[in-house]
Amino acid sequence: MTKKLWGGRFGKKTHPLVEEFTKSIQYDYKLAQYDILGSIAHVEILHKAGYLTKDEARRLLGALNSIFGTVESTAKADKVSEDVHTHIQNLLQKKVGDLALKLHTARSRNDQVVFATKFYCKIGILALEGDIQELVNSIAGLIKINKAVIIPGFTHLQHAQPVYLADYLGAYLLMLQRDEQRLEYIDRNFKITLGAGALAGTPISAQKYAIKTKEWLSAQGGLQTVFGVTATENSLDAVSDRDFVIEIISALSICAMHLSRLAEDLIIWSTKEFDFVQIDDSFCTGSSLMPQKKNPDVLELVRGYAGRLNGNLVSVLTMMKGLPLTYNRDMQLDKEPLFNSFEIVSSELKVMAGLIKTLKFNEAKIKEHLKDESLYATDLVYYLVDKGLPFTTAHTAIGKLVKYSVDNAIEIKSVPEDKLKTFSEKLVKKEIVKLFDPLVSVRSKKSIKRQ
Q1: Residues with catalytic annotation?
Q2: pLDDT by residue (tens digit) across 154-175?
Q3: 371-443, CATH topology level
Q4: Rounded to whole angstroms, how far apart are CA atoms 331 and 389?
Q5: Which of 97, 169, 196, 397 is in Cβ range 3.0-4.6 Å of 111 for a Cys bridge?
């Protein structure tokens, strides 16, 4: 059994069942390097406050730096420590003996875990922004290649009106842009703090907690990003706040929902019934029974994982809803949903960026779909409106014309002139046949502000 960071008040050893049930090292090992970065900052704070001599600070910093590169792997392999903080403390004791015990001066795991989790989130958001941009670039490349392609647009999964494929895909670019903006906003609005202690603060002046991370962060693990570390404004809030976790998982859930919608469109478009798009073999899988199958499993998993992300959000919201101030052990259960959400969305963004680059659109098949005259019914309505009919009157007339076409299995273009006049005197056959053209249809829409 490894040494704990507590225990003096207890007369009995912790029951093995409790040890197993309460430990978190099996997932919070992912915070190991961030916890060390917090310890590096804390050594500086303790030195400034007079709790450590210059030599003690030097020895502790040396020990922390020496384990920085391997600490995540050693923590992951640790099957007995209560948590990552205990693991690191035990490693330091092996390096510098009882001097390691001084590091916990004016410090609590309550404060440590918030620091490490916030640091993890800021690095994770930076990485996700890069992943989002990679997918944006892939979609933008697909748009450029297929700039002139027109496809049927859909409402209720029914043919609606012709639209540019570029506009269809551009809608997903805007979704991803909002996803990135949400993450940027969240990132700007939570601060990395130290000095809360367990809940009531510490005897060290707040000014000593307001350090510039540039002094120590850029040298650690190649991390060049500078985050300010400030003294907490309210120590009770600092150790009990998990709003930032909930907001991040919420933003990631929305991003996963967007990716799921894109995946669903591509799944539908790749079916035999639609045949709009071909997905490269390298991003599909087969069947163990049916040799002809080419399954879009990647897209189906992206669609399925949206449910996992929603579950992660609900689990943390539910866990937090009844907690009194300040820290409660329930709160260690925010880590797995948080880590899982970051990892899933990052993987999805990467695989979708790769898959998008392989897509080939079947323009011949798309053109067959564009022959559906119902796609141009709204254009016929506006044709009558331009001739002076009220919109509702025009809408009713064209609706009846479409019904006649369907009921009698005859194309509108083939309806005799005299029959057309029974729906509206304004209908002129040689004029309306020109409207059954996808290019004419998309060019008639003037309200869209295209780049």
Answers
A1: 156, 287
A2: 999 999 999 999 999 999 999 9
A3: Ribonucleotide Reductase Protein R1; domain 1 (1.10.40)
A4: 65
A5: 196
CATH 1.20.200.10 range(s) for the chain read 111-363
Omega cis (within 30) before 326: yes
pLDDT in tens, 321-350: 999 999 999 999 999 999 999 999 999 999
Six token digits for residue 183: 């993450």
pTM beyond 0.70? yes
**Would you say domain 16-105 falls under CATH 3.40.50.150?**
no
pLDDT in tens, 50-95: 999 999 999 999 999 999 999 999 999 999 999 999 999 999 999 9
Amino acid at residue number 438: P
Is residue 144 within 8 Å of 62, Cβ to Cβ? no
pLDDT tens-digit series, residues 351-401: 999 999 999 999 999 999 999 999 999 999 999 999 999 999 999 999 999
Query: At the topology level of CATH, where does 111-363 sit?
Result: Fumarase C; Chain A, domain 2 (1.20.200)
User: Does the CA dihedral 45-113-107-77 come out positive or negative?
Assistant: negative
- Which residue has 């044709």 as its token pair? 383
What stretch(es) of the chain map to CATH 1.10.40.30?
371-443
94-103: long-range contacts (C-beta < 8 A, 24 or more apart)?
A: 95/63, 95/66, 95/67, 96/59, 96/60, 96/63, 99/56, 99/59, 99/60, 100/60, 100/63, 102/46, 102/51, 102/52, 102/56, 102/60, 103/39, 103/42, 103/43, 103/46, 103/60
